[in-house]
Fold:
Amino acid sequence: MNILHDFFEIPTENHLSISLHEILYQNEKILWQGKPTGKHLVQDSEKITTGISFIIYFVGEMILLYKLLFTAFSLSNFLFFFFWTFWTYLGTYGIFHLQYICRKRTRYLVTSCRVILLYGNRYVEYTYGKLNYLVLKTWNDGIGTIYFKEPPVLFERMGVRKIILDEHTTELAAIYDAEAVYQLIKEARAKWRSKEQKSRLNFVKSEVGH
Structure:
């Protein structure tokens, strides 16, 4: 049993290709599909918290290293230094390394009636009828993130599970040609809602006619 994989629900390579026939509706068309890039792992709201964490961990690491090198050897000091080093890695670089690994196992679909976020053998969907929040954030290199819920602000997205789960349930994270995909979703949503409104009007007319 791989505790890390079980805890964070990281799918293996064998679980990457969920059958689209199992989740796509009849006559549903795929308009775009893509994957998140490995860039822009750190959100703006996390730069301050990551910097503060790094300073705290670095100072603690230097103190422990000094005690380890310039004082009498102590097993407790050695073990404390080892575990502190591990948490330093996990609390700074490790979280985003894990995030990068998870992104490689993620796929996004924009279809004629919804947006689908595939992660291994699981998926989250946003149907156009309920997709009210749609915000795009881009960087200078053309990569951008499309949010389906209000993005986190300072200190809101902390912790490994929170960072990983947010990316796989609430956004198209760090995709190429984000502006074009954003416009595609807006157009598909408008078209779907227009068609839905017409069908409702036709239903009302038919009811009145009877």
